[in-house]
Amino acid sequence: MSQKPEKLIDKKGLRLDGRKPDELRPIKLEVGVLSNADGSAYIEQGKNKILAAAFGPRELHPKHLALPDRMVLRCRYHMAPFSVQERKSPAPSRREVELSKVIRESLEPSIFMEYYPRTGVDIFVEVLQADGGTRCASITAASLALADAGIPMRDLVTACAAGKADDTIVLDLMDTEDKAGTADVPVALMPNLNAITLLQMDGILTSEEFETAINLALEGCRKIYTQQKDVLKEKYVGVKESEE
Ligand code: ADP
Fold first, then answer.
1. pLDDT tens track for 37-60
2. Distance separating alpha carbons of residues 216 and 239, to the nearest angstrom
3. Are 52 and 125 in contact (CB under 8 A)?
4. Deepest in the core among 33, 139, 146, 217, taking most CB within 10 A?
5. How far apart are the CA of 121 and the centre of ligand 1, in A?
C-alpha cells in the first residue's frame, strides 16, 4: 500500500497530481457502450473507470416486490477484484451495499417513477478501476445510462465531491487525498432543477469550510453536467442523421 504523503498541497498551492484546488480531474464520458443493456454509460474520471448498465422498465422478479403506484428502482454498485491495488473480494462488502443504496437514493428523485407502476428498473455499476470518488462518478454514469435507456426523467443527476487536503478546500478528491485528507463532501445535484439529491460528509469541517466545500462541489457538478448533456446529444444527433 502507498504511504501517506507528507504534504498534499505543495508550496505553489498545487496538488499531488498537479491540479489547482478548484480543478476537476479530466473526465471522459460515453453512452450506449453495451449492446445487451437498455441503456449504458462509461465514465473515466482521473484514474476511475466505471461502467453503468440500466435495464427496464420491465416486469419485476420477485413479483411481490412490485408496487401498485410506481416502479421499483434497484441498484448494485460493485468493485471488480482488480479495481484496487490489493485484490478485493468479489463478494459484496458492507461498503458496496451502502453505496448501492446511496446511488439509488440519489437517482430516484430524478425519475418519473409513477409512470411505470408494477415494474422495475435495474442499474448495475461496475467499478473497473477505483481512485477515489467512485460513488460520485457512478451516479454521473448511472444517470446517463438511465437517460440512454429512455427512462422519463426530470433532469440528469450529476455528482462531485469536495473536501479538505492539508488546510485547503479542494474539488474532486482522488484516492490519496480521500485517505490522507481530513474531510470529504460528496454532493449529487439535478443541475437544471437546482435540487440536491445526495449530501454526505466524512470528516470534520467548520461551518465556513463546509459552505466553501459544498459550493465548490456544486460548481464541479455544473461543469460535469455540460459534458453529460453533450455526450447524450452527440449520440442522438448521430441516430437522427443515420435515419435521414
Ligand atoms: P468513494 O469511492 O465514493 O470515494 P470511499 O470514500 O468509501 O468511496 O472510498 C474511497 C476510495 O478508497 C475508493 O475510491 C477506492 O479508490 C478506495 N477503496 C475502496 N475500497 C477499497 C478496497 N477494498 N481496497 C482498496 N482500496 C479501496
1. 999 999 999 999 999 999 999 999
2. 36
3. yes
4. 139
5. 26
